[in-house]
Amino acid sequence: MRVAASAYAVRRVNPFLGVTQVVELDIGRALSTDGVNWEIQLAVERPGAWGSLNRDRGEKQFYRYGVWSSEEGLANFPVHPALDAMALREAADTLISATGERRSALPFPLADHFELWLLDDADRAPLALLATLSMQHLIPLRHPAAWSAAPAGADGFLAPSLIEHGPAGDSARRPRCHLDAVEELMKRRAGSSRQTQWFERRHDNAAALAGRSAGSKHHRPEVILPELPVAERWAQAADEALIGSYLAWLAPRLLTLPLSPPTRARMEQAAASPALVDRWYRLYPAIADADLLNRVRVQARLMEAAAAI
Fold first, then answer.
1. Domain extent at residue 284
2. Do 89 and 123 fall within a single domain?
3. Residue 276 in 3-state DSSP?
């Protein structure tokens, strides 16, 4: 019997890491960042604290039950002794069955249409994506204004413009220095005020103000949001080149977004990491040049085979 389930996706932003696919039932949810490996999270009642007189009874929280893939099956995490192991296993089996039924529909549509943007200090135009939500009532009163180009331990991004004009050997001494340069560029354009605004993204990237502060910080009732997680247009050619290199570095992940055909074709040409393209290929909602991406994926398999020798 087919179980009624909702299947959707949400972006992993600030820093941008791709898209998480979600299959959700009342009993839990399955999460995947690659469409192959799924974390099984089950909805369980929060155990009441000592002396709470069951005040917390009925509150639900997600319990990390295990990891599942169609090839390797289910790998369980240790079960808390206070939980019913048999009931959890039955719920996990139901959720896994629902997930397996819906894998053919990957990638799922994005549900997080509400977006928090860092604004340009000069004209209050959207500059960098800070957070996303699927429902407006979840928008908090306060939110961070700091933007990150990559996780703290990430390196491997080298901008040709910085290599050409930067001090020799700097990237070897400071592996993250080019990512730091991207973050500093965003800080300068955002200014000391660090203004932010929630928007609701609509068709063709048109957006309306959202959140409790709607209309208080942005002087236009409707704007066009950047298609990618950061603005691509910059006053200085060197700055625009740096941002272009950064987006090219992110290209295998950016292709998981619902991009316009010209932008998708550009990002496919820029995607220089065969391994990452092969990892997320099944989550690309469209393909501009199938022959190109097939060649990239073949290259990834050859590289993997060579590394195993």
1. 255-309
2. no
3. helix
Rounded distance between C-alpha atoms, residue 293 and residue 140, angstroms: 40
Answer yes or no: are the C-beta atoms of 40 and 68 closer than 8 Å: yes
Residue identified by tokens 């959707």 is 8
Q: How far apart are CA 7 and CA 102, in angstroms?
A: 8
Token pair for 34 = 């690659």
Return the number of other C-beta atoms located less than 10 Å from residue 273's C-beta.
15
The reported pTM is: 0.89
* The residue to which tokens 């089996």 are assigned: 93
Cα separations (Å) of 66 from 24, 59, 205, 258? 15, 22, 37, 30
23 and 66 within one domain: yes
Provide the 8-state DSSP code for 149: S
- The pair of three-digit structure tokens given for residue 9, joined into one six-digit string: 């996706």
Residues 284 and 234 in one domain: no
Total of domains in the chain: 3
Model pLDDT for residues 17-63, shown as the tens digit of each residue: 999 999 999 999 999 999 999 999 999 986 655 444 555 555 679 99
For residue 1, tell me if it sits in a domain.
Answer: no
What is the residue whose two structure tokens read 């074709």?
A: 265
- Euclidean distance between CA atoms 87 and 223, whole angstroms: 49
On whether the CB atoms of residues 100 and 70 are closer than 8 A, the answer is yes
